[in-house]
Request: fold
Amino acid sequence: MSELITSPAAVLADKLASREVSAVEVTQAHLDRIAEVDGEINAFLHVNTDEALEVAAGVDKARAAGEELHTLAGVPIAIKDLIVTVGQPTTAGSKMLEGWMSPYDATVISRIRAARMPMLGKTNLDEFAMGSSTEHSAYGPTRNPWDLDRIPGGSGGGSAAAVAAFEAPLALGTDTGGSIRQPASVTGSVGVKPTYGGVSRYGAIAMASSLDQIGPVSRTVLDAALLQEVIGGHDPRDSTSLTDPVGNLAEAARNGSVAGMRIGVIKELQGEGYQPGVQARFNESLELLKDAGAEIVEVSCPNFKYALGAYYLIMPSEASSNLAKYDGVRYGMRRLPADPPLTIERVMGATRAAGFGDEVKRRIILGTYALSAGYYDAYYGSAQKVRTLIQRDFNAAFAQADVLISPTSPNTAFKLGEKLDDPLAMYLNDVATIPANMAGVPGISIPGGLADGLPVGIQFLAPAREDVRLYRAGAALEGLLEQKWGGPLLASAPVLGGVK
Reply:
């Protein structure tokens, strides 16, 4: 397999800067890889061939003319199809928005354009980001490059699978309850949920506005840091955007170290319910960190056990409100009722029945019920009180530790279809990732090894606005593990990238 598609983004950036390779060559190599393998993986819903090559050619021309370019100029990227993009369809994985073209770019897309990074296309996801397996897409499931009979995680399985299969060196995802980190865990890639507000949400189709966060997907911690530096920073168009600078994330990733760092092991996010192989890889990582000079302490977050239940009240409630705009009147799909009378209510009913899949309908119904008169305080209000308790647990834990650590997901990738008929079993995949979204703190998942031949993820969590600390710890463990393995985890796949 060509080094043009297996090299990390930082390495590609160096080769491009030295003019060892051209941006057109790098972009074309990835487009060729997509054409070769994506028929089996289904990571992409749209491939942006012409524009990507045009941007790459412009980078080569500018570089030849001696223009000063961004570090990642000419490095290709894939975009989760929940982020609106001029010139490409944005479907949110739903029939409701099939073929819809946005009239404006999301802020993160504007920043990627400014960095002159060729966009390879839009990646598959669970419909409106509702799912943990990318099986709820209206355009078919994405498959895990490690085993095509298994899920790539969700909702952003398309972005993670594209990176793991060497179809893209970088991708954007969104994380509402783990939708970047959980797919990264089960595909052997790196996924980051920045501090809430650290990356603008303007132009990301909203599911749950108080939980959603755009972030990077990559194959190395340094690559994720470089990408977050591109997309991060204040945006006046997002009222929740932080004014603080993102910090020098790339420097933290290049100089990763845990010497003298206190790392808190979350008592409630391990043990019972976690696959034995996942727990074994987690314990091995703790030993490596301890040997590297970290102080390992156990912390208790007793209210984390309520996080899953509270999340599945808050998230559907916000989703039911955000998705009310899909009414068959303003934009998107429109279906007329079979029989008169032709009223707005009946058009809305026919449109939403045809346009939304089962999981979206399930969450809308649950959220609407939780917000209804007589139940608001008992359900939504109580869930928000639990959210406050979870935030207090984090505050107490960070008083004892610099960063926290846990397995990213309790299991490795399960078989396609295995949990489709059991929503509660599906929701349990997010048990370790949801607390970070409830509190707005940043989290990263890095490859932690294999269990039964499938990737395991290790998650670090840091206090809000301390993304630098997150990258420093993540890069340190990444280096320790790769030293132990003799190279990156993806290089150990029986067939590189999992697809012949």
Summary: The first strand starts at residue 44 and ends at 47. The mean pLDDT is 96. The domain at 3-256+442-498 is CATH 3.90.1300.10 (Amidase signature (AS) enzymes). DSSP finds 17 helices and eleven strands in the chain.
